[in-house]
Design brief:
The protein has about 210 residues and is of the alpha/beta class. The protein has six helices and 13 strands. The strands form three sheets. Strands 1, 4, 5, 6, 7, 8, 9, 10 and 11 form a nine-stranded mixed β-sheet that branches. A two-stranded antiparallel sheet has the order 2-3. Strand 4, helix 3 and strand 5 form a beta-alpha-beta unit. Helix 1 packs antiparallel against helix 2 and helix 2 packs parallel to helix 3. The longest helix has 19 residues. Bound molecules: uracil. The site of uracil has 9 residues, from helix 6.
Length: about 210
């Protein structure tokens, strides 16, 4: 059923604690973002359909299973979403990758500056990735764009989410599944998640 999926696995919770620590440096933050994304992706892909095949092992023919049906694409929201791409493509190496870039102007309106999606995106299931789900505006915008491109099955993956962002996304797009490591208290006056982990883009790319 569509809605919020909190992935409370101990490895994910441990890595999120390290990500939160303001003393965690760029190299470690980048590695932890990727590893956490990989673990959340494991859950977000739990419902991928399988088909039975026969494979010859060195000993005998095994009736075994492979992923079948529709293919996947990941779409990172620029720029912080890029930090999750290594992790998720470790799990699904054949997935295609689209990019959507946007920023919030001074009035908190979303301004798109880049969009490049795989040509065959309408034939794929899509998982949008962004480490922080804050107000939900970027997520809603990205989901709108991807729906306009003809995609039927969209999931959203993040590491930390604010209740406001979860509510806004699910109010606007009740058909979406959100996969998330932890739900925090809420947003501060600058729309940062509290306690959160700061500006994920700056911490992944070392820009501050
Ligand atoms: N984006 C971030 O990187 N951090 C926040 O806390 C909110 C949005």
């Amino acid at each position: 059923m569509a809605g919020l999926h909190l992935i409370e696995h101990p490895l994910i919770q441990h890595k999120i604690s390290l990500l939160r620590d303001k003393n965690t440096g760029v190299k470690e933050f980048r590695e932890l973002t990727s590893e956490t994304a990989m673990l959340i992706c494991y859950e977000a892909t739990r419902d991928l359909p399988l088909k039975e095949v026969e494979i010859a092992t060195p000993v005998a023919v095994a009736k075994t299973k492979v992923i079948s049906g529709r293919k996947l694409a990941f779409v990172p929201i620029l720029r912080a979403g890029l930090g999750m791409i290594d992790g998720v493509t470790n799990m699904v190496p054949a997935a295609k990758i689209g990019h959507i870039g946007m920023f919030s102007d001074d009035e908190h309106n979303i301004v798109k500056y880049y969009s490049k999606l795989p040509e065959d995106i309408a034939e794929r299931d899509v998982i949008i990735v962004d480490p922080m789900l804050a107000t939900g505006s970027s997520a809603i915008y990205a989901i709108d764009e991807i729906k306009k491109a003809g995609v039927k099955n969209i999931k959203f993956m993040c590491i930390v989410a604010a209740p406001e962002g979860i509510k806004n996304v699910l109010d606007k797009h009740p058909d979406i599944d959100i996969y998330c490591g932890v739900q925090d208290q809420g947003l501060d006056e600058n729309k940062y998640i509290v306690p959160g982990m700061g500006d994920a883009g700056d911490r992944i790319f070392g820009t501050k």
